[in-house]
Amino acid sequence: MQCPNCHNEVQQGQAACPACGAQVGDNTPQEGVPNQEATAGLSTPSKSDAPAPPPSFAQQDQTPEAIQPPVAGGAAVVEPTVAAASSGATQDQTPGSTPALDFPPPADTSSQPLGDFPPPPPSASTPGQEGFGGTAPVSPYAAAPGVVPGTTEGGGATPPIAPPAGVAQEPALPKKKKKGLLIGIAAVVVVVIIGVGAYFGITEMNRSNLYNEATTLMQNGSYEAAKTKFSELEDYKDSADQVSKCDKYIAYNKADELFKAGSYYDAYKAFNTLGTFNDSTTRAKACIQPVPGTGEIYRNEAFAAQTCPVTINSPASNTPCYMKVYSGDTLVSTLVINPGTSMTLSLPVGSYQVKSAYGSNWYGEKDMFGDSGTYKIMVFNDAGGDVMQLEPNYTYTLDLKVSTSGNVGSKSTNRSTF
Predict the structure, then answer these.
(1) Residue 97 has what pLDDT?
(2) Residue whose C-alpha is closest to residue 380's, from 413, 350, 353
(3) CA nearest neighbour of 4 among 83, 95, 98, 88
(4) Which of 13-27, 218-232, 323-337 has the lowest mean pLDDT?
(5) Dihedral Cα 183, 188, 193, 196, nearest 10 deg
(6) How far apart are the C-alpha atoms of 40 and 62, rounded to whole Å?
(7) Contact of 290 with 362, CB cutoff 8 Å
(8) C-alpha triplet 167, 170, 176: angle, nearest 5°
(9) Which residues contact 92 (CB under 8 A, 6 or more apart)?
(10) What's the per-residue H, E or C state across the chain?
(11) How far apart are CA 17 and CA 2, in angstroms?
């Protein structure tokens, strides 16, 4: 026979269904025993209407108090029914006894993966939930009344929602790992800051030492070496000014060397270029030498004979005159004729060329009157001949020309070829 509750096959003589535990008996109702279905006021589902529940439900004693309220959100609610004895079965129902409950089988969810929820229904408005421009839609995943958010009706944790298809979800780092990562980054930053500070500290110390070394070299007169070190420091302190000062000391020393070598005019120009640096102004004036007195300064021994006397006159209005006498390319004599003076120069018989230089500042026989002097070659005839022919038993007189006076002319030359 079959169990009136779950319709499971029950062996003859068994008082209860081995599947659901319901009492079974003869299906023929007894006379005088009221029908339990009528007494309870409940209807028993027929065999064709009620599907068999799973064994997990059939083997438990279900009471009306254990039934949870229906889930909100559109889930179907099935009212449990009290299973009564089938017609013809004799059961004693005492007041206060709990009838067996008949539950419908749960939906098959074996093919649905965890976290794969059905798409939400179209937006609906719930009274009392007002949003911008209207009422707020109710989420299809809202918790049912009386259910703690984050849990299911049975008290379990809500399954996680899977990310959309094609979107990779990065795993969240544990808090300890994040904290360790932040500490590591901070440590690296601190090390970098310390390293940069140490680098600049060392650089500053090195530059300071280099500056001190350059200063010491400069004080000792090693201006070339000091300039090199100051140049390496570039814009450190007043290094650029010190480089300029070294250049001036170097130029000053070169001017002094020229002066000591007798190159008074070149020394004069060097000191004059330095301006007021050190005692350059005083040293420049010292380069101007006093003009020698009237007379012969140099005589070539090969021309020692004094056969032909030559008298030279310089007007008072003239400037000092320095003269060179050549025999061909050979220098025979040098002499000075100051303004308003005269002298006699005796020379051997022969042909001579006479050159004259005039100026105010005398820098010695090497540089004479410098670039500001006037340099001439005397002319002895109207044809422009520059050769003076001396014959024995004759006396010769040369009157140096000032403007249109004098008996000799001249043509210009330059100091380098004088």
Answers:
(1) 45
(2) 353
(3) 83
(4) 13-27
(5) 170
(6) 17
(7) yes
(8) 165
(9) none
(10) CECCCCCCECCCCCCECCCCCCECCCCECCCCCCCHHHHHCCCCCCCCCCCCCCHHHHCCCCCHHHCCCCCCCCCCCCCCEEECCCCECCCCCCCCCCCEEECCCCCCCCCCCCCCCCCCCCCCEEEEEEECCEEEECCCCCCCCCCCCCECCCCCECCCCCCCCCCCCCCCCCHHHHHHHHHHHHHHHHHHHHHHHHHHHHHHHHHHHHHHHHHHHHHCCCHHHHHHHHHHHCCCCCHHHHHHHHHHHHHHHHHHHHHHCCCHHHHHHHHHHCCCCCCHHHHHHHCCECCCCCEEEEECHHHCCCCEEEEEECCCCCCCEEEEEEECCEEEEEEEECCCCEEEEEECCEEEEEEEEECCCECCCCCCCHHHCEEEEEECCCCCCCCEEECCCCCEEEECCCCCCCCCEEEECCHHHC
(11) 9
Question: How far is CA 192 from each of CA 197, 203, 367, rounded to the nearest angstrom?
Answer: 8, 16, 67
The model's pTM is 0.50
Half-sphere exposure for 215 (CA within 13 Å, toward CB):
10
Q: What is the largest CA-CA distance in the chain?
A: 201
- Mean pLDDT, the chain, integer: 74
* All residues at 6 or more sequence positions from 337 whose CB lies less than 8 Å from its CB, including other chains: 294, 312, 314, 320, 321, 323, 343, 400
Number of Cβ within 10 Å of residue 279's Cβ equals 12
pLDDT tens digits for 274-315?
A: 999 999 999 999 999 999 999 999 999 999 988 999 999 999
Q: CA 200, CA 198: separation in Å to the nearest integer? A: 5
User: How do residues 99-129 score in pLDDT, each as one tens digit?
Assistant: 444 555 555 555 544 444 455 555 444 444 4
Q: Which two tokens stand for residue 184?
A: 């590591």
Cβ contacts of 365 within 8 Å, gap of 6 or more: 297, 298, 322, 334
Enumerate the β-bridge partners of residue 88: 28
**The two structure tokens encoding residue 39:** 């007494």
**Residue 351 predicted with pLDDT over 70:** yes
Residue closest to 228 by CA, chosen among 213, 248, 238: 213
Mean pLDDT across the stretch 241-267?
96
Tens-digit pLDDT profile for residues 58-109: 344 444 444 444 444 444 444 444 343 333 444 444 444 444 445 555 555 5
Supply the pLDDT for residue 195.
Answer: 54
